[in-house]
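In response to reviewer comment 3 from the previous cycle, which asked for concrete evidence that the modeling workflow produces usable outputs, we include below a single protein chain processed end to end. The sequence was submitted unchanged, and the resulting structure tokens are shown without manual editing.
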Amino acid sequence: MNLGLRFPALIALALLAVPRAVLHDMKIIHEGTAVNLLFVAVPLLVWIVVVVLARTPRPFLTLLAVGAIYGVGLALVHQVFWDVDVRLGGNLAGRLPIAAEQGIMRAFAAVSSLFTGLLTGAVTGLVAWAISAVQTRRSV
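The workflow returned the following structure tokens.
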């Protein structure tokens, strides 16, 4: 499938958003700050601008792919910097070994990261698709 960008470019775009996760997990930047906002918004704007300027044939799918790669990066970062001692609650509280509980929590965190990446790619992809559609109509 032609996404309009080569795979290394997709990886490079995805990696632009990963430093925010690293800095956040290291507790260097915090939610609600201007610096955090820059680390969130700028990479996503770059994704959109690159895809629109490259006139990719499928901007939504291109950025969905970038988002998927970003989700993998996000999952890896969260696993590497995992420092939370989270325990299961409810009916499962204390019924499993701690290692099993941690494994379950890490698995859910990884799935959550992948979902976050896909959702980010979908939203930015919709924006890029809309911009591309407007540009196409104006040039006709």
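The chain has one domain: 7-139. We consider this sufficient to address the reviewer's concern, and the full set will be provided in the supplementary archive.
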